Each structure stands twice: as structure tokens, then as C-alpha cells.
Amino acid sequence: MANVAVIGAQWGDEGKGKIVDWLAERADMVVRFQGGHNAGHTLVVGGTTYKLSLLPSGIVRGTPSIVGNGVVLDPWALKAEVERLREQGVSVTPDTLMIAETCALILPFHRDLDGLREDASGAGKIGTTRRGIGPAYEDKVGRRAIRVCDLAHLDDLGPQLDRLTAHHDALRAGFNEPAIDREGLIAELREIADFVLPYAQPVWRVLAQAKAKGQRILFEGAQGVLLDIDHGTYPFVTSSNTIAGTAAGGSGMGPGAVGFVLGIAKAYTTRVGSGPFPTELENETGERLGVRGHEFGTVTGRKRRCGWFDSVLVRQAAAVGGITGIALTKIDVLDGFKEVAICTGYRLGDQVLDYYPAHAADQAKVEPIYETMPGWSESTAGARSWAELPAQAIKYIRRIEELIQCPVTLVSTSPERDDTILVRDPFAD
Hints:
The protein is an alpha/beta fold. It is built from twelve helices and 20 strands. It has helices spanning 16-24, 75-87, 108-120, 133-141, 158-174, 182-196, 203-212, 246-249, 284-292, 311-321, 360-365, 391-404; strands at residues 4-8, 29-32, 41-45, 48-52, 65-67, 72-73, 97-100, 104-105, 200-201, 217-220, 260-266, 269-271, 305-307, 309-310, 325-329, 339-348, 351-353, 367-374, 408-412, 420-422. The radius of gyration is 22 Å and the shape is globular. Mg(2+) binds at residues 13, 40.
């Protein structure tokens, strides 16, 4: 049986949470391998809605869940999320949740710096969630991060704090902020350590044992390929690699760990925050997509920008993300449109492009080339087989397959986990 990685094939918010939850029931382990609590996954199970940011979606089902070393961890956000789930009746114990000892921590001054920079950036604002994700990754790469394992050795943290404060105090001074209160920081870490440390493990070892037993491992990505630090719409991207290849390094497994890569894409396109968006519809149609699709961010509540499906971007995401098959979500949002459109290319001056250019200025200038198709008046909501879909909806899906050069292996027709049409089982390969 193959291991499966689930990643976003657009700008995030594609409905990964439901798909991971649907797959997690048949997995032996679920692993988050990058990002932080800027991720937002909404699960609807038996009429109950669960909102997750940091924890792997498998936790709701009781599937052993791992936060891998590629994640940056806000320990206070972790505690709040665990407590919120417990109030909803979800058991979170060291048997069901394991956190890599080597995760870098997001600390209060990371959040401060994130907000200070964004406020000072003027027209250069990226639209971050202000949760400290980027600054924490910077400290990790700069070799000055405090990690989960350090919580067990707080009395020995002096040299690392020297490196950390030498960097951050200079930055804070530039914003007329006071230096980091080292004693206050240690006191906060000492208080939260008792909560975090019971979950800390050498998860690479847990995963190696699972692999040796032939267990099914489900890798859960955050955000989407178009927000990848290398392959996304830079600089309007996240601070980590969101492609499936990151699952190996972000979990402590080798490059052969990932088998089937399932890319999640909406039947239209959305984006949160700043950055180019070729098919954005700033009109009644875009508003209709947003209202029908309930397009508000799980983490921030921010309204998402909406537009037609962009096959150029998804084809590119499938290529660089290593995607084997696409899970197409929210097809029901398109019910009732007389016509639906798909972007098949771009015009940039006198050029016609079949890919998204790298430079931000060119990205902002491209004009989408559309292909229109008749819509459908019948409802697709809740369909669980091809026979329940209108013929024109099936034609729309098949045309998407042709354009993105990647098969649609699963279709989601509502937020409910069982309202899913399975074409090809990712775990069967």
C-alpha cells in the first residue's frame, strides 16, 4: 500500500481538511510536515464543525498524529487548540499526538516582528497572518531558534539566547521597541514546557517503525503550491516549501517515503491576502462564488478573493508539486451558473503564455484567456457517484483533466466527509 501526501494545488484553502479527514480513517498515522498555525482546516463530522490550525486533521478521528520537524510550533497556540478540541469531546493524548523534538518554536517576539514589519511595509505588504511564522523560520535557518527539545533544558539556554537577542534586539530597536525581556521569556517557556514536553518524541523513529511495519502514512500539507517559497507567486508566498517533496525532510523520512501525491483544487479559484490573481472576478459573479462557497479564512476570517478556475496555475502546480491526481472540491458552488469559464492561457503584451511568469510585475500584467462552457441547473450537492452528477458538470471536470494534464481522482460535493466521489483510491497504489 502506498503512503499518501495531500497538498494544496492552488493558493491554499482548497478543502484539504475534509479530504485528509476522509483519508485519515484508513491511515495508520497522519503527519503535518511544514507551516505553522497559519494553516486553517475545517472538518465537518456528523454535523459538528472542527477548526484546526496546527494539529493534523487525523486527530479528530483518533488517528495517531504527528507534528513533524518541518513545522514551526507556537506552544501557546498548541495549548489553546488542544483545549478547544477537548471541549468538543476530542481526546488529545501523547498516544494520539506526537511532536518532533526538533520543531523550532514561534515565540512572542516573532509575532511582534511579523506585525511591525507588515505595518511598516506600505505598498510592499505581503498580507501575512501576523502569527510569527516567517520570523520563526528565519531564526531556524539562522541557527538561533529555540526548539521543542530546549524546553527540557531551559537552564542551559544562555548561549542560544545570546544569539537570538543579538539579532532581535537590533531589529526591535529599529522599530523603537524595547529589548527582549530574557527573564520574562524564560518564565513563559518554563510555564508552557510542562504542557508541550509530554508530546515531544523523536518522531523520525516512530515513523521508521511505522514504515517497517508497512503501516499507511498520510502526509498533510498546509497552504498550497502557489504559496511555496520557491515555486509560488513570490514574494506573496508563505515561508516554507509546500510541495510534496518537503514531506520527506519535514518529517524525517527519506525521499521514497511519499507514494501517491493528491493535490487539492477547488472547481474555481480563491486567494486570501495580497498578490497577483489573474482570474479574479471583482464583480457580481465573484461575489456569488464567495457567498455560495462561504469563502472566509478558517484562521483569520478574512474574505477570500474569488475567480474562475485557472488551469495554467494548477497544471504548473501539478508539475512542480509532484501531483499524481487531483481532488476537485466545491463543484456544487458552480451549480446554477448559465456559463462557466476556465482560464487556458495568458496574454502578456504580444505574447501568449502557457505558464505563469516568475516576475511579480509580469504576474500582475497577464490577462487570462478564457474558454467558456455551458453550466448546469441541476444540483451536484451531496452527490456520491458519477451517475448523480449532471452531464455538463462531468464535461467540465473532464475538460479540467485535459487542461491540467493530471487525472481527477476524487470529487468533493459538500463539506460533509461522505459526500465524495472516489475515482481512484490513493492508498491502493
